[in-house]
Amino acid sequence: MATAGETDSNTAAPSCWNEKDKSPLLEVSQGLVVKYIGQGKDDKDAAAVRANNYISPSLGLFYFEVTIKDKGRDGFIGIGLCAANTCMNRLPGWERHSYGYHGDDGNAFKFSGTGTKYGPKYSTGDVIGCCVNFLDNTCFYTKNGTKLEIAFRELDCQEGGKPVRLYPCVGLRTPGEEVETNFGQSPFLFDLDTERRDLQQKALKVVQDRPILAQGWQQSVNQIVTSYLVHHGYRATANILSRDLDTTIDEPEETIVQRQDIREKVMNGEIQVAIDMIQKLFPKVFETKPQLLFLAKCRRFIEMIGADDAMSDGSGKYSDPRLEEILAYGQEVQSMWHQPPCNTNENKAVLKEAFSLLAYNNPRTSPVGYLLNAELREPLALELNSAILETLSLPGRPSLERIVQQASACLMQMRDQEMGQAAFLNISQFM
User: For 197-235, how does the pLDDT look when each residue is reduced to its tens digit (9 = 90+)?
Assistant: First the structure.
């Protein structure tokens, strides 16, 4: 008997039945319809099929529905979960690391041929759903879109020190039995979106209700917020916070004002003015980071093309003097690219994209017209601001941003490690 294959992606969800991983007493068509073709004399004639992928805990929540097309002779149908090495000549729930809800008696089976009372029986025409919740490591079922109680708990079993990966499975045992499965290719009867939102709120509450035990944490938070405001030039607000909450500002007022002015110039598209201010007030910025000067000049080139006064009339054509000015500046930027350390492939791509604006009569409506959007000035403003701070021996990035990035990395690592709780959390929920 074949066993279920591993998936390369820890987020690849089961999407069909594995025709190579089933009992020979079952016939699978279209990857979704399963029919019993055995004699069905006794339990030795039971047959099961496993899905093509395991259910990764990184999915957080996984659900599938099975429509009973025909209950057959006796309706000995089981729907549930199993491990990769579970025998496929047994109904779900009868074997170790196997779970099943059976239609003939409504019982739930876990690792045993003896079931416990669980839910209603099901038969031809019924739709049975199976939902795995990795926040609580539980499994519940639905019948015709109505949620039943939890059937199984503690699904996070281990064997040999490794987690047991679970696959959807379905089992049949008597002639005529036939089912069809919906792995999400069609809308579900059950309201899965509401279930997911409820679990997200539950996960969020667990985090929010967790007490912070570190002493002095509130003052540390106040200082982090103050530093963030200073970093981005919100001088007045930072001063109020510093006064009222007894936090410190480690940068002279003068340079905070200067950085704020430079940022405003960049955001207004006055790139050359900003370049001149930096060269006068903070000359080390471009001396130590010539590539940043290159990017600033590329942005100025784009602003020259997009300036309202760049056009002689509404036709989208440049006046000769204006065109000569733009081309001359473009040649200056291109010459700068030829000099190390600016001559990188990445910078070449930036320059090529900027130059492509000249190929169109009306750059704003061209395929690269997005380059003229004002919001694209912000990345440059942020980079210049960070570089200035670094020349002042101050952090180039505020602590708050580093904390958020670290928290995001931790969540990503948790998902990579298939920790189900991480699937229900997002950093944006706390911001």
Answer: 999 999 999 888 888 878 889 999 999 999 999 999 899
Which distant-in-sequence residues (6+ apart) come within 8 Å of 22 by Cβ? 2, 28, 47, 48, 49, 50, 88
Confirm if 118 and 106 have CB atoms less than 8 A apart.
Answer: yes
391: number of Cβ within 10 Å: 18
The torsion of the CA quartet 253, 258, 264, 267, rounded to 10 degrees, works out to: -120
Q: What is the DSSP string of 331-349?
A: HHHHHHHTSTTS--HHHHH
Considering only 30-39, 221-230, 415-424, which range has the smallest mean pLDDT?
A: 415-424
* DSSP reduced 3-state for 150: strand
Is this structure's pTM higher than 0.90?
no
Residues β-bridged to residue 311: 318
Work out the number of other CB atoms within 10 angstroms of the CB of residue 243: 9
Cβ neighbour number for residue 379 with a 10 Å cutoff: 12
Q: Which helix (H) or strand (E) holds 373?
A: none
Burial 311-342 (b: 16+ CB within 10 A, else e): beeeeeebeeebeeebeebbeebeebbeeeeb
- Give, for 204, the enclosing helix (H) or strand (E): helix 192-208
In this structure, what DSSP letter does residue 370 have?
A: G
- Kind plus residue range of the DSSP H or E element containing 356: none
